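FAQ

Q: What does a record look like?
A: Structure on top, sequence underneath. For example:
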């Protein structure tokens, strides 16, 4: 099989960002200063800066700033400290992984590797199987690889037979991926389960570097970073400009790089690199025991998953029966009815280890983290232990982001762990940070609209663009930028921040879908490039760019005619508008991105 990603097979993953205590202390100092100055700024905005003649504009903007500031507080708490869990030697026996060794025979660990698949190319799954078979371990181990095929394809079954791995399918697709894994758990018996996607290709070191964490009998799962090995490396700017403009373009490109450093066009066009999420955000949740499961690349203790399923099953039955029998006064009748309903429900209700939800991995984390009796632990393991394929077109990217946003918002609004018993306060804050970030589409729309309103109308949301305004806003912006640079040291933050601002249409659609009580669908993210024109997917972003650019042009003409005399306001909003245009440009450019011709197509 020859595929577009074949030439990237030798690419190595980045090493985890080295932990530096001096840098961490500097980050904590700058972040504290930023929050302090930010609070001073927000207080001033509410009490002394609102334009009384345009409260319809001033109040929504200051409210948006306040909500964003709350998000900043949660972000700082999340990034406060790196507390990596020390790796332990690989266990040689199940007795080394349980609280009561005498209750178990002295035998090797039993590990199941799950590859759920639906419509992915069988030869792609074969590559994953081959890499899973190549995993090594310093002790005898009972390793079984399972292909969980919801597509019921003979070609997939043939691949499983040829590779000597177990093939599991089922009559229906109830529950989608979660139901697929539930079905597999009913037919397997491993002590630990490695969750993979169809394109997850484990490294040989995955088991021997992660199973040691389970020497602590309270560790329920270990999450490893997801890494996309075939992200387009991009083309140097001088080379791109030379192709279009000849020698002058090449010289222009070199001049730009002299000023701002190396620039590569087409590098990771969809901002797929997960390093910010895993190596910064997830890794720094270890101190709060709040790193949540992200599916592929995770290892689960079967006992924990089944115990959580049993408790959720029991709680759901109790809630349902309590609701039905709430108004019955006769205690004997109530007792008899409850017993009868329990028997009936036990026969009709299936135990669901992985909740049938588009974010079943987060749900599993919530159930385990909120168990007040067991106090399960999670571990984020910083080194990359597998490789995966990224989305290669805007349709696939939009499907994936909508699932992430919709699933997270659905959990936040309908089954929020912040109000569950059993979670510690730091864990609640970590989950709150995740939920709050997806609600950012609400205030991001205000930030995108504000400079447009000002440039077209001249109406300011502040009383005056005076020295008092700059005295409050500039120190906050400077300290926040500096703190973010230090706190995310080693990971480029600008592209992630700009894409986050431009996500607003997808997040809004997800929010509206959940608020209307509709289910977030379970579409499989395509693993092959989708062809076509994707401009229709970025119409809102293009509209923002056009309106903002038109506002800049209109304000410039008005200023030239002497009708726009507030120079400070014009410059401030022009800078703001330019930042918004740049933020939108990334996703708009992605809609028109085409891979290098040498990468096109797949042949077998």
């Amino acid at each position: 099989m020859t595929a577009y990603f074949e030439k990237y097979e030798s690419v190595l993953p980045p090493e985890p960002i080295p932990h530096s205590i001096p840098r961490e202390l500097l980050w904590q100092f700058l972040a504290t200063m930023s929050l302090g100055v930010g609070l001073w700024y927000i207080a001033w905005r509410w009490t002394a800066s609102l334009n009384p003649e345009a409260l319809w504009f001033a109040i929504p903007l200051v409210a948006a700033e306040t909500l964003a500031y709350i998000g900043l507080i949660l972000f700082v708490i999340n990034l406060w400290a790196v507390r990596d869990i020390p790796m332990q030697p690989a266990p040689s026996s199940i007795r080394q992984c349980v609280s009561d060794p005498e209750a178990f025979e002295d035998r090797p660990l039993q590990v199941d590797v799950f590859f759920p698949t639906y419509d992915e190319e069988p030869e792609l799954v074969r590559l994953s199987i081959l890499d899973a078979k190549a995993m090594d371990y310093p002790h005898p181990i009972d390793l079984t690889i399972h292909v969980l095929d919801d597509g019921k394809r003979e070609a997939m079954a043939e691949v499983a037979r040829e590779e000597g791995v177990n093939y599991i399918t089922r009559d229906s697709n109830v529950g989608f991926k979660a139901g697929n894994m539930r079905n597999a758990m009913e037919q397997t018996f491993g002590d630990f389960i490695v969750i993979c996607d169809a394109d997850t290709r484990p490294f040989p070191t995955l088991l021997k570097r992660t199973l040691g964490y389970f020497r602590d009998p309270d560790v329920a799962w270990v999450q490893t970073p997801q890494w996309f090995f075939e992200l387009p490396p991009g083309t140097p700017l001088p080379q791109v400009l030379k192709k279009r403009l000849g020698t002058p373009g090449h010289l222009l490109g070199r001049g730009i790089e002299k000023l701002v450093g190396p620039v590569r066009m087409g590098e990771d066009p969809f901002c797929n690199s997960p390093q910010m999420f895993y190596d910064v955000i997830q890794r720094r949740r270890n101190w709060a025991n709040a790193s949540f499961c992200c599916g592929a690349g995770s290892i689960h203790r079967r006992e924990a998953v089944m115990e959580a399923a049993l408790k959720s099953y029991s709680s759901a039955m109790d809630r349902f029966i309590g609701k039905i029998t709430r108004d019955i006064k006769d205690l004997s009748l109530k007792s008899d009815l409850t017993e009868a309903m329990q028997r009936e429900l036990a026969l009709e209700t299936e135990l669901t280890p992985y909740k049938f939800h588009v974010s079943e991995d987060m749900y599993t984390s919530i159930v385990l983290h909120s168990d007040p009796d067991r106090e399960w632990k999670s571990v984020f393991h910083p080194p990359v232990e597998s490789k995966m394929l990224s989305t290669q077109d805007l349709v696939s990217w939009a499907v994936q982001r909508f699932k992430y946003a919709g699933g997270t918002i659905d959990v936040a609004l309908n089954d929020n762990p912040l109000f569950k018993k059993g979670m510690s306060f730091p864990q609640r804050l970590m989950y709150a940070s995740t939920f709050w970030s997806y609600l950012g589409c609400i205030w991001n729309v205000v930030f995108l609209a504000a400079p447009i309103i000002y440039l077209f109308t001249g109406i300011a949301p502040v009383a005056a663009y005076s020295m008092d305004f700059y005295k409050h806003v500039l120190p906050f912006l400077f300290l926040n930028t500096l703190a973010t640079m230090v706190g995310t040291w080693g990971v480029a933050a600008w592209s992630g921040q700009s894409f986050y601002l431009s996500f607003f249409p997808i997040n809004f659609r997800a929010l509206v879908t959940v608020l209307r009580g509709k289910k977030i669908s379970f579409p499989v993210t395509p693993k092959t490039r989708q062809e076509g024109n994707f401009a229709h997917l970025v119409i809102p972003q293009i509209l923002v760019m056009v309106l903002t650019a038109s506002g800049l042009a209109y304000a410039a003409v008005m200023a030239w005619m002497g009708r726009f005399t507030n120079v400070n306001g014009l410059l401030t909003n022009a800078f703001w508008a330019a930042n918004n245009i740049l933020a939108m440009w990334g996703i708009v450019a992605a809609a028109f991105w085409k891979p290098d011709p040498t990468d096109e197509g797949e042949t077998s």
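Q: Is there anything notable about this one?
A: Residues 345-349, 600-604 have pLDDT under 50 and may be disordered.
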